[in-house]
Specification:
The structure is a homodimer of 317-residue chains. The first copy, chain A, has 317 residues and is of the alpha/beta class. Chain A has one domain: TIM Barrel. The first copy, chain A, is built from 13 helices and 12 strands. At the A-B interface, helix 2, helix 3, helix 4, helix 5 and strand 3 of A face helix 2, helix 3, helix 4, helix 5 and helix 6 of B.
Chain lengths: 317, 317
């Protein structure tokens, strides 16, 4: 049976590109012509900000849609604007789906029992109205946090199985202070192992039995590019787990570091970059009206860098 | 200087009640007269569900507002209905604030750097519009998850200090599978300790320097009632940390178990119950139109149970 990661692999092959573009809008960095237009129409309101987000995102998406098949909106930046921000998130996801893109929602949700089920149903499945059910966020994959244990993860596995969706559980994140908790030594089955490796053991256990045609379970793992040695160890021990790899670009991750995130057959990871793409116009020689062109250039650069490290002179596997 | 937990202690003293009422609406359990009314007005839509949530919550709040000073809406149940659910959350919080209640948002948010700051600003502080800032969710306290380390927590401390707010970090949760991760043995400063105790060490460190008049730091901890022996150990080692204690009632926590969550002076914990209060009408002999009366009875019972265990024959400290 095909699961979500078979669909992801098909999409990666379609674009010959194992990367994804993050959509993390920041009103202070959105080009002035977009801000002024929405300010004129909606005033200095949350609605104006939400409209700016959607317009800006569509510019990024349109400029990169022939290059990449997977996008990752970060929920925090939308949720922060309440109703109007959530509307912008939903509008962005719907636009991506109209273009047949895969959407990874970066939300790091976590809770237990019925509450976790409520998150899983609304983000990946269907919610209950008074007399029927309907889809609402309907993303393909969501990031989640495993600190609460199996009670918190099983609802996501259940809903993923039902709707052919999936989740990435935080394991070894790309930030410097990921060492605080994730790198401590845990005693697991009488062995001393790093905490993130124990989390990986749980992810493997929680996802058991959900393997798709390519052998990946429906629970992936978030593994930062910024710790390539750690990624290598995790990749070798957990070939059945698909990685979401943030931190490429702005957080210091480099193309040569990411090769260890892939399995030998060249699958098993999606490499993500967000701000470095969205706000590329601030870093490279474009004016702010050309923010889409700037984003496109950096997206192509990321694809080509990763291709060359992964496949050398061959364009694709 | 007063911090958020001084304000919480004042509120607890005002009501002589160290408990809080959870507001976790579930459309399948909301009384039919509320559903029918909103169905007639808004049709079978998310808007109807959102309106049901607010009406139902107001019924619970009005029936308990002379008994308790702290409420805890669970964000998952609102967020699940998108724009209309977020509106219901905001309407509920605004109603609570109009009654001078303290609001703990149960959201278990977590991320790093700018993203964590975005969560902190929007839920506890102010967001940036195009030309100004404004408050949006504006709750008093939020639950957060510390798995990402200090990068993820510092933005919440920074915003808490600025706006006199606070956060509860997940430490030892009330669900059965909290043992998966939280009870494993970690090696911390050359000692073998349970993982949740290590998390507590980090919470203490992250909150250092934020102590208020009563000695509590602005970062509290979520500690389930369902593991009273663990709670006792944590309480003794971390007197500067205020506890949010869910799991009372439906998850199996009992009044005699919770005494260990308080410091010797009778402060240091808020005990929470949600579904057992909201949907009490299904368990005790009331008809569904009397759901507020049922909630009131259970809220008073919880207060009195905890008072009697904490203070014996004395009504209050």
């Amino acid at each position: 049976m095909k699961n979500i990661f078979d669909i992801v692999i098909d999409k990666v092959n379609e674009f010959k590109n194992p990367t994804c573009v993050g959509l993390d809008p920041d009103i202070s960095k959105i080009p002035n012509h977009i801000k002024q237009k929405n300010l004129d129409i909606y005033g200095n309101t949350r609605k104006a900000v939400g409209k700016c987000f959607v317009e800006f995102n569509k510019g990024i998406i349109d400029a990169t849609k022939d290059v990449v098949g997977v996008y990752k909106p970060q929920m925090a930046f939308y949720e922060s604007y309440g109703v109007e921000g959530i509307q912008a998130f939903i509008d962005t996801v719907q636009y991506l789906k109209s273009l047949n893109k895969i959407v990874i929602e970066d939300a790091k949700r976590n809770d237990i029992g019925n509450t976790a089920l409520s998150y899983a149903k609304s983000h990946l499945g269907e919610i209950e109205l008074i007399n029927s059910t309907e889809r609402i966020y309907d993303v393909d994959l969501i990031t989640i946090n495993g600190y609460l244990g199996s009670d918190g993860i099983k609802p996501f596995v259940e809903i993923s199985n039902k709707f052919n969706k999936g989740a990435f559980v935080l394991a070894k994140t790309s930030n410097k202070s990921s060492v605080d908790i994730q790198d401590t030594i845990s005693i697991y089955k009488n062995k001393n192992i790093k905490h993130y490796l124990m989390m990986m053991e749980f992810i493997k256990k929680w996802g058991e039995g959900t393997e798709g045609s390519n052998g990946y379970i429906c629970l992936g793992a978030v593994i930062g590019t910024t710790f390539p040695k750690d990624a290598k160890i995790i990749r070798e021990k957990f070939p059945e787990c698909f990685f979401l790899v943030p931190g490429y670009g702005i957080q210091g991750g480099k193309a040569e570091d990411i090769i260890s995130c892939f399995n030998a057959n060249g699958t098993g990871a999606i490499i993500s970059s967000s701000r470095q793409i969205s706000f590329a116009y601030q870093d490279i020689k474009y004016n702010e009206k050309e923010y889409g062109l700037a984003a496109r250039e950096v997206t192509i650069q990321m694809r080509d860098d990763i291709r060359s490290v992964l496949y050398g002179n061959k364009l694709w596997i």
